[in-house]
Amino acid sequence: MASPELVINALTIAAGGALVVERVTEYLKHVQKRLDQQQAETYLQQVELDAVEQALHDVQQSPHSNDSQNASDDFERYASVPVIDNVQPSLNRAKVRLFVRLAPLALGIIIAAVMDLHLLALMRGVSVAPMADVVATGAWWVAIQQWLDTLLSGVFIAGGSQPVHILIRFLRARSALLPPPADQTELLTASPAAEAMPALLDYQGGVKPLTLDKVHRRSGDPQRIVVHHTAMHSASSFDTVVDEFLVNKGWLTGYHAIVMPDGQLHAFCRWDRRGNHAKGHNDRTLGIAFHGNFHSDGSDAWSNHDGRYGQLQPSDAQLEAGARLIAAWILLYPAMIGVDDLVPHRELLGANTVCPGNRFPWADLCQLVQRWLVTWQQPRCWAELQMLAQRPYLYHAQAPVLTRPAEPSASESSQAATSISSPATPESQEARHG
């Protein structure tokens, strides 16, 4: 499967090349139009000169020109209008037309060859080795296939931007049906089988953090955490969720974090900036979305009562990872004190939504968050949380000095570690999904 970076680079090259081809084609057509106009003007001038010469010749050859002139004085005279025949195609004109037709095609092929572009391989979802390596290994059939792929990619680019847009829509629709890649994580994957002690959260500012440097600033650090579901197909990728906000809706931000069904955690919006997830409540909240549609009311046209959007409830790994991040947020931001600062989207004042769905196991999530709050306070975990607090893109102003809550008792620590590290029993699974 081709990596997302490779897909983005290939589409960028194709779109840029198509734009160059369109501009060159427009210029060549303009030049051709000017040449045709000049040829028509030259032909008209020649016709007029021939008409004048013919008239002079007729006057000189007519012996009764004066008599005919006098005889016709009583009649109204009209100026002769030269009749212009269709311009006969010349060899030079044919050459110009052929050049205008073939130049964009040649330019598209040159761009594809120079940039080593392989759009067919991209649509098939396979990676392509450098041509030099293929030739060095003697795999001539593979080299021919790659050369033909580049040739067809050049023809594709020569068609302009419209075919590229069609390809982008095709790949976007195709990616929505594929499972997310295993290596596209910004935060460490967490699952019920993970070890009791969580690893450091590798937060780097989310998607395109520099675009938010001067916009969407908070009035202060977060005070609450809003829980959502994406209401999208659970098998679609993280990039599909990002595109829904940044491309389809044209927004700069979205959720602050997204939890995938397999437990992968992705940062989306910078945590020190207002997201775009809960109208009227974005300034002092963090938004976390569990990927999927967990609403099963059949009267709702967008519900997932028949499984059309994938899984009907969050997976165990998804709840575990989401609870782990929520507990870390509660401890990172001084304005929050516990599970009471957690709220489903539908319960916000003025919210007209069912998010995160009537099948979302809210009680189970709160219980897991409480357990992770205890786990994060253990010495090694607390040290890692302090390191995370020093990273950029976390706070409205200067990073505070984290104050560790009261030391949990030995029985509480043991119970929390056992609850997190041990697989869920059938009874607990039934409660979570029932």
From TrEMBL:
<keyword id="KW-0472">Membrane</keyword>
<dbReference type="InterPro" id="IPR002502">
    <property type="entry name" value="Amidase_domain"/>
</dbReference>
<feature type="domain" description="N-acetylmuramoyl-L-alanine amidase">
    <location>
        <begin position="210"/>
        <end position="357"/>
    </location>
</feature>
<feature type="region of interest" description="Disordered">
    <location>
        <begin position="404"/>
        <end position="434"/>
    </location>
</feature>
<keyword id="KW-0812">Transmembrane</keyword>
<dbReference type="GO" id="GO:0008270">
    <property type="term" value="F:zinc ion binding"/>
</dbReference>
<dbReference type="InterPro" id="IPR006619">
    <property type="entry name" value="PGRP_domain_met/bac"/>
</dbReference>
<dbReference type="Pfam" id="PF01510">
    <property type="entry name" value="Amidase_2"/>
</dbReference>
<dbReference type="InterPro" id="IPR036505">
    <property type="entry name" value="Amidase/PGRP_sf"/>
</dbReference>
<feature type="compositionally biased region" description="Low complexity">
    <location>
        <begin position="405"/>
        <end position="428"/>
    </location>
</feature>
<feature type="transmembrane region" description="Helical">
    <location>
        <begin position="98"/>
        <end position="121"/>
    </location>
</feature>
<feature type="domain" description="Peptidoglycan recognition protein family">
    <location>
        <begin position="209"/>
        <end position="343"/>
    </location>
</feature>
<dbReference type="GO" id="GO:0008745">
    <property type="term" value="F:N-acetylmuramoyl-L-alanine amidase activity"/>
</dbReference>
<comment type="similarity">
    <text>Belongs to the N-acetylmuramoyl-L-alanine amidase 2 family.</text>
</comment>
<keyword id="KW-1133">Transmembrane helix</keyword>
<dbReference type="InterPro" id="IPR015510">
    <property type="entry name" value="PGRP"/>
</dbReference>
<dbReference type="GO" id="GO:0009253">
    <property type="term" value="P:peptidoglycan catabolic process"/>
</dbReference>
<protein>
    <recommendedName>
        <fullName>N-acetylmuramoyl-L-alanine amidase domain-containing protein</fullName>
    </recommendedName>
</protein>
